[in-house]
Amino acid sequence: MSHLTTTANRQQQPLKPGGRKHFKQRFNTFWADFARQWEIQSMVLPGILFMIVFCYIPIYGLTIAFKNYTVIDTLSSAPWVGLDNFRIIMSDKYFWDAVVNTLGISFLKLGIGFVIPIILAIMIYELNSGRFKKFVQTVSYLPHFLSWIVLGGMLITWFSTTGLFNELLLGLGIISQPQNILLDAGKYWWIATLSDIWKEAGWGTILYLAIMSKIDPTYYEAAKIDGASRMRQIWNITLPNMKSIISLNLILTVSGLLGSNLDQTLVLMNSQNREKAEVINSYVYRMGMSQGDFSYATAVGLGVSIISVILLVTANKITSKLNDNQSVL
C-alpha cells in the first residue's frame, strides 16, 4: 500500500523546470500542437524564414565594426582592429555635427509632430458631417502615399526664387527680393520638421481615430447631462481613453530620436544647407556607400542602435510609471 502511495505522489509531483524530463515533455507538447494545427502553423514558416535570412543572419555582418574591412576582404579574412573605429568616431567632428542636427530635427518633430496628429484626430472625430469628415481624412492621408522624391521635388519647386512660396511672400509684401530658403542652412531644421508633419500627420491619426471609435458613447451623453462642455468632454473622456496608444507612440518616437528620415534628407540636402542638413543616417550612408569606409559606417550604425535600445527601455520605464506601473509594450 505504501509503495503505491509513493508511486502516485511521484506521478503527481510537477517536473522541475529545466530538467531533462521537463524539456522532453515540452518538446513533445510542442510537436503535438504543431501536428494538430499544421495548416495554420505552416503559414507562419515563410515569415520565420524571412526573419532568419534577412534579420538574424546579417547580424554577423556587425563584426566588421571591429575590423578593417574593404571590398577585397571577406567577413572572416578582414583584420581585427578592436575598438579603433569607435575611437575615431569619438574624435570625428563631422559625426558630432550630424548628431547635433539629428537631435535638433528629432526634438522639433517630437515637440510639434507628436502633438499635431492627436489634435487633428480629435478635430476629425468631433466633426458631425460624415462626408466632410471623410474628405478631411482623405486629404490629410494623401501626402503619406507620395514618396519623398515627389514631395521633395514639389518643395524644391515651391521654394525656388520663382516658385509659389516667393510669389506669395512678394504678393503680400513680406519680402522685397525673392530668396530660396532651401539654400539657407539656418532654416533647414524647420523645413525638415514642417514638411515631415505635412506628410505624416494625417496618417498618424489612424490609430487615434480607431481608439476613439471604441469609446462608449454613453460617457459623452452622461457628461452632457452633467453640463460638461465640449472641451471638458475631450479632456476628461477622450484623452484618458487614448492614454495607452499615446504612450506607445511616445515610446516609439523617443526610441527613434537618432533615426532621422534618410529619404527626406537626401532629397532636400544640398551643398548650401549641408551644414545643418547632414544627419546620422545620411552620414552613415555617405561614409559607407560613397567613401567605401564600411567598417566605420557599421560602427556608427551599431552605436546608434545600442543608444536607441537604451532610449526605448528608458521611455518604457518612464511611461509605465506614469501609467500606474503598467507597461504598454
Question: Largest sheet, if any?
Answer: none
Count every helix, treating DSSP H or I runs of 4 or more residues as helices: 18
Uncertain spans? 1-13
Helix and strand composition category: mainly alpha
Percent strand equals under 5%
Query: What is the annotated CATH architecture of the largest domain?
Result: Orthogonal Bundle
Query: Any idea what the shape is?
Result: flat
CATH top level of the largest domain is: Mainly Alpha
Instruction: Round the Cα radius of gyration to an integer and report it.
Output: 28 Å
Distance between termini?
Answer: 53 Å
- Please give the domain count: 2
Helix content range: 55-70%
Mean pLDDT: 86
Question: How many beta strands in the DSSP annotation?
Answer: 0
Provide the succession of SSEs: HHHHHHHHHHHHHHHHHH
CATH topology of the largest domain: MetI-like fold
- How would you name the CATH homologous superfamily of the largest domain? MetI-like
Verbal overview:
The chain is mostly helical and 329 residues long. The chain contains 18 helices and no strands. It is flat and about 70 Å long.
